[in-house]
Structure formats: structure tokens, C-alpha cells
Amino acid sequence: MKILERKQIIVAFSINIYYKCPAYIFKAKVILAAWLLENAQYKLKTNSLAFSHPRSGYKLSVRAYLAGENSGRGTHLSLYITIMRGDFDSLLPWPFRQNITLTLLDQSGSRNHQTNTFTPDTNSDSFHRPTSDSNVATGFSRFISHGDLEAPRNAVYVRDDTLFIKVKVDTTGLEDL
């Protein structure tokens, strides 16, 4: 069933976390109304529960806008990472310098995953040690278009109203806590 063809007026987008070393996989249950995606003034945003990378100690969360945000509003799925204040911040090197890879997993078995990686801008406050509960989220406002999400070539990203998002933090150069 395609996302944009739904007729429900139910809006739900929850994320559950599964850890699979060295990455996190998030299961997102997706149920939404077609009018929501077509009307960009509605912000369908959700954050995952916070997770701390077991090797590095940085506390992070995933933020997703199913109806898109900024330049992707109304046309794309937007995915972001947020660095949060954590228990081990005083032991960690700042600013955060690790590459982060976000992957939308193909559920067809063909392994045609949609992947984007970013290198943190160490001048951005988003990657400095948090002074509040969380920093400004950083990521991809145009991660994947709604068209490719619903009718991808040789891939299935949404099955049984569920999509999977994988987050991998490159720990190269970090010492174990």
C-alpha cells in the first residue's frame, strides 16, 4: 500500500531502536493521511529515543519528517541526527567529528538501500558540546523523494506500514570509554 494513497486521518510515526553493532537500526511505523503529505504546512516530525553509542559515548537521536522539511517540504522524507547532552560529555572530544551514515533499508531483499553520509562541520554549534538538552539537528532535508519512497526502482522501502532507518557512526580515531 502506497503512502500517498492512504485515506486514514490517523497520524502516527513512532521509532523503535534496535542495536546491531556497529550501527543502530530504527523501525518506524508509518500511518498517515494523504492530505498531510500534500499540505506542506503540516509538520509530521518525530524523534527516536535517545541512544548512546556504546564505544564512543556520544548521545544521539534521529529526527524524521515524513512530509519533509525546508527544501524537502511536501516532496521528500527528511532525516536528521541530533547530538544530545549525555552522561559522558566531559570525557569526550569536542567538537564531534565522526562521519554519520543514514540508510533507508530496502525490504525487498535486493539490498538497494538509500544511503547518505555527512561529515560534521566542526564550526557549527550542532557539533559542539551541548549546552542544553540537545543541539540543532543536522542532516538531509531531501533524503529521498516521496515518489522514490512509494514507487522505487528495484526496492521496497515501506512494507506493512513500516520503514527501517539505519544509523552508523564512524568511530575511526575514537578511544573506547
Automatic annotation (TrEMBL):
Residue ranges, compositional bias (Polar residues): 112-125
SMART domains associated with the record: MATH
Highest rank taxon of the organism: Eukaryota
GO molecular function: thioesterase binding; tumor necrosis factor receptor binding
GO biological-process terms attached to the record: regulation of canonical NF-kappaB signal transduction
Annotated segments matching region Disordered: 112-133
Any GO CC annotation of this UniProt entry: cytoplasmic side of plasma membrane
UniProt domain MATH: residue ranges: 30-169
InterPro entries linked to this entry: MATH/TRAF_dom, TRAF-like, TRAF1-6_MATH_dom
Name of the protein described by the UniProt record: MATH domain-containing protein
UniProt source species: Sinocyclocheilus grahami (Dianchi golden-line fish)
